[in-house]
C-alpha cells in the first residue's frame, strides 16, 4: 500500500513543472473541459482534434529522450512508421474480431520497441553519443523511408497486406472494442477521442511518476554529466537504452494511433520533414518538461494546421523561423520560458506583499 | 593491509609513455598524496584506476580483487569514488537533488532526507540547498562534488586537485573535511599542488615524474629530498 501511495507522491517533483493543489485543480479543470468538449462540438471536428492528440505521444517520446535524457534522436519517426505499418500488416491479415486490433496495437508497439532495443544496444553500448546519435538515428529513419518507398510492386506484400510504396498502405480496420450488442468500431469520432484522451492522461501521469522517480533522476544526471553519473556507480548505458526503448514505444503508439485514425500510412510519415517537425514542436514548447511539451505541441500543431489551410507554401517556412526564434529567444522553449517567467513574477509579487 | 595495488602499470598515448611501470601500494586507512609537475601522469593514473583508460599492461587490485578489466561503474560499486579536477556537478539541478542522485542507490525516504541534511551541514551548504549547482561558487562546487563522492560511502576516495581555485581558508576547511573523513575510516588518495594542503593532510606522499614513481615517503622526507626539489619543489620552494 505504501508503495502505491509512494507512486502518487512521485506525481510531483523537481523534474516536472506544476505542484500543489492549485496545479492539480487546474489539471482537473482542463481534463473536465476536454471530457465535456465533444458535447459542444460535432463528430467531425472532434475527430480532427484526435489528430492533434495522436502526435502528442511522439512529442513526449522526444521530450523523454532528448529533453530529459539529452540524446537528440531523429529516429522517433522510424519507430512511428514501424508501429504504424506493423499495425496495418497485422490487422489486414488477421482482421478486427475478438478485440485483435488491441493486440495488434500492443504487438506493433512491441515491434518498434524491439527495433529500438537492437539499435539502441549498438549505439549506447558502443558509446555512440552526442551528434553521432542524431546522425545514426536520422540515417535509420531515411533508410526506412527509402525502403518503404520502393515497395510499390505487387511482390512487396506480407500476407494479404500490400506495402504499396509511396501510395501507402490503407484500409486497415480501426480499433474495435468487442461488445455484446456487436463490436464498437472506433472511427475518427467521439469514441476514438475518449480512448486517445484516456491514453494521453495515463501516459502523461505515468511519465510524471517515472521522471520524478530515482530512474528519472539518473536520466537527468546523464544529460547533465554522463561521466559524473557513471562515477556514481550507474551503468549509464543501461539507463540510456531503457529510456530509448520507452521513447520508441511512445513514438510507436503515435504511429499506431495515426494509422488507426486515418486508416492510412505512407513512407513520407518517416521522411525528413516528418522527422524534423516533432523536434520543432518539442523545442518550441520546452523539451525538458512534459507539460510544456504537450502545450507546445498542441499550440504549434494547430497553428501549423491553420497556416496550411490559408497558405500551405509558407507553413513549413514558418516552422523553420519559429525554431530559429526559439533557439535565439528562449533556448529552453517558449512555453517553458513563459511558465518559468510567470511563476517567478508571481513568487516575487507574493514576497513583496508578504 | 593493502587496499589498492597498482602492479607494473603501463599506458602509452601514441609514442608517449604516460604511465611507466608504476607500482603503488595504498594502505587501508591512509591519506596518500600524489604530487608531481604538470604532465607527470597524475590524472592519467587516476583514469586508469577508475577504468576510464585501460592500461597497456599491468594490473590494478582493489581489496584483494583484480579490477583491471572492470567497467568504471562496477569499480565504483566495489567501493571506489572520485572527485574530478573540474567539478562535475549536475549544473541545472539543485544542490539537494545532486546529493539525492548520489545517495539514492543506497538510501530511501526518511533515511535519505536525514543523510542529505547531514551532508549539507558537513559541506557548509545548508543555505544553498535549493540553489542550482551551476550557480554555486567554484569552491562550493568542489565541496558539493566531494559530498557526492562520499555519499557512496567509498572505501577509497580519489580526489583530483580538491582545492584548485580555493582561497587559503577554503583550502584549510577542505583539509579538515578530508581529515574527518579519514578519521571515520576512509582511505584517501589525492592529487594536489597546494603544499600547505599536502602538509595538512598527507601521511605519505608519492612523487610522479615523467610517468614514473620518482620518490615516496613522508612529507618531510619528500621536502628534504634534493632530487625532488630539483624536478618539482625547487620551483615552488626556492
UniProtKB/TrEMBL annotation, chain A:
Q: Does the keyword Endoplasmic reticulum apply?
A: no
Pfam families, alphabetically?
BPD_transp_2
Question: Which InterPro entries does this one have?
Answer: ABC_transp_permease (IPR001851), LivM-like (IPR043428)
Keyword Cell membrane recorded? yes
Taxonomically, which superkingdom?
Answer: Bacteria
UniProt keywords, alphabetically: Cell membrane, Membrane, Transmembrane, Transmembrane helix
Subcellular location per the Swiss-Prot or TrEMBL entry: Cell membrane
**Annotated transmembrane regions:** 21-40, 52-70, 77-96, 102-124, 131-149, 184-207, 241-258, 264-283, 290-310, 316-342
Identify this protein by name. Answer: ABC transporter permease
UniProtKB/TrEMBL annotation, chain B:
Please indicate which superkingdom the organism of origin belongs to.
Bacteria
Pfam families from the entry?
Answer: ABC_tran
Coiled-coil features, chain-numbered ranges:
none
For molecular function, the Gene Ontology terms on record are: ATP binding
Keyword list (alphabetical) reads: ATP-binding, Nucleotide-binding, Transport
Signal peptide segment: none
Q: Which residues form the ABC transporter domain?
A: 4-235
Keyword Transport among record annotations: yes
Give a short account of what the protein does. Involved in beta-(1-->2)glucan export. Transmembrane domains (TMD) form a pore in the inner membrane and the ATP-binding domain (NBD) is responsible for energy generation.
Please report the name of this protein according to its UniProt entry. Answer: ABC transporter ATP-binding protein
Origin species = Bradyrhizobium denitrificans
Lineage of the native species?
A: Bacteria, Pseudomonadati, Pseudomonadota, Alphaproteobacteria, Hyphomicrobiales
Amino acid at each position: 500500500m505504501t508503495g502505491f501511495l509512494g507512486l502518487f507522491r512521485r506525481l510531483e517533483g523537481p523534474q516536472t513543472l506544476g505542484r500543489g493543489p492549485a496545479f492539480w485543480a487546474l489539471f482537473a479543470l482542463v481534463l473536465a473541459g476536454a471530457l465535456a468538449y465533444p458535447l459542444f462540438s460535432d463528430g467531425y471536428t472532434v475527430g480532427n482534434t484526435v489528430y492533434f492528440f495522436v502526435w502528442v505521444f511522439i512529442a513526449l517520446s522526444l521530450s523523454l529522450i532528448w529533453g530529459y535524457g539529452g540524446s537528440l534522436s531523429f529516429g522517433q519517426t522510424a519507430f512511428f512508421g514501424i508501429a504504424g505499418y506493423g499495425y496495418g500488416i497485422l490487422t489486414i491479415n488477421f482482421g478486427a474480431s475478438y478485440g485483435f486490433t488491441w493486440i495488434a496495437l500492443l504487438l506493433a508497439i512491441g515491434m518498434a520497441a524491439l527495433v529500438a532495443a537492437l539499435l539502441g544496444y549498438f549505439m549506447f553500448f558502443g558509446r555512440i553519443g552526442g551528434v553521432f546519435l542524431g546522425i545514426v538515428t536520422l540515417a535509420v529513419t531515411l533508410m526506412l523511408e527509402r525502403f518503404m518507398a520502393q515497395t510499390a510492386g505487387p511482390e512487396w506484400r506480407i500476407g494479404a497486406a500490400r506495402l504499396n510504396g509511396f501510395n501507402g498502405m490503407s484500409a486497415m480496420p480501426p480499433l474495435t472494442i468487442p461488445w455484446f450488442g456487436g463490436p464498437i468500431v472506433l472511427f475518427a469520432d467521439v469514441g476514438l477521442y475518449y480512448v486517445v484522451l484516456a491514453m494521453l492522461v495515463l501516459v502523461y501521469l505515468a511519465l510524471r511518476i517515472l521522471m520524478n522517480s530515482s530512474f528519472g533522476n539518473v536520466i537527468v544526471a546523464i544529460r547533465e554529466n554522463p561521466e559524473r553519473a557513471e562515477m556514481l556507480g550507474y551503468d549509464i548505458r543501461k539507463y540510456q537504452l531503457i529510456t530509448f526503448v520507452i521513447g520508441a514505444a511512445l513514438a510507436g503508439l503515435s504511429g499506431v494511433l495515426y494509422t488507426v485514425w486515418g486508416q492510412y500510412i505512407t513512407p513520407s510519415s518517416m521522411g525528413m520533414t516528418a522527422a524534423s517537425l516533432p523536434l520543432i514542436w518539442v523545442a518550441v514548447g520546452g523539451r525538458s518538461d512534459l507539460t510544456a511539451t504537450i502545450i507546445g505541441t498542441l499550440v504549434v500543431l494547430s497553428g501549423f494546421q491553420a497556416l496550411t489551410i490559408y497558405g500551405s507554401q509558407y507553413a513549413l517556412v514558418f516552422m523553420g523561423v519559429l525554431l530559429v526564434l526559439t533557439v535565439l529567444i528562449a533556448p529552453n522553449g517558449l512555453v517553458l520560458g513563459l511558465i518559468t517567467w510567470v511563476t517567478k513574477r508571481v513568487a516575487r509579487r507574493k514576497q513583496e506583499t508578504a | 593491509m593493502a587496499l589498492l595495488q597498482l602492479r607494473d602499470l603501463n599506458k602509452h598515448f601514441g609514442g608517449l609513455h604516460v604511465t611507466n611501470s608504476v607500482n603503488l601500494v595504498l594502505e587501508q586507512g591512509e591519506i596518500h598524496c600524489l604530487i608531481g609537475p604538470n604532465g607527470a601522469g597524475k590524472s592519467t593514473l587516476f583514469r586508469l584506476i577508475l577504468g576510464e583508460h585501460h592500461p597497456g599492461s599491468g594490473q590494478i587490485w582493489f581489496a584483494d580483487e583484480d579490477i583491471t578489466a572492470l567497467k568504471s561503474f562496477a569499480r565504483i560499486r566495489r567501493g571506489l569514488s572520485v572527485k574530478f579536477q573540474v567539478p562535475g556537478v549536475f549544473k541545472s539541478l539543485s544542490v539537494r537533488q545532486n546529493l539525492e542522485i548520489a545517495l539514492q542507490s543506497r538510501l530511501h525516504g526518511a533515511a535519505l532526507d536525514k543523510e542529505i541534511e547531514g551532508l549539507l551541514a558537513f559541506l557548509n551548504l545548508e543555505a544553498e540547498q535549493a540553489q542550482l549547482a551551476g550557480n554555486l561558487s567554484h569552491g562550493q562546487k568542489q565541496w558539493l562534488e566531494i559530498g557526492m563522492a562520499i555519499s557512496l560511502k567509498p572505501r577509497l576516495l580519489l580526489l583530483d586537485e580538491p582545492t584548485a581555485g580555493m582561497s587559503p581558508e577554503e583550502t584549510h576547511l577542505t583539509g579538515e573535511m578530508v581529515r574527518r573523513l579519514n578519521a571515520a575510516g576512509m582511505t584517501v588518495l589525492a592529487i594536489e599542488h597546494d603544499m600547505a594542503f599536502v602538509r595538512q593532510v598527507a601521511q605519505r606522499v608519492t612523487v610522479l615524474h615523467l610517468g614514473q614513481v620518482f620518490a615516496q615517503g613522508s612529507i618531510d622526507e619528500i621536502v628534504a629530498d634534493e632530487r625532488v626539489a630539483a624536478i618539482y619543489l625547487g620551483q615552488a620552494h626556492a
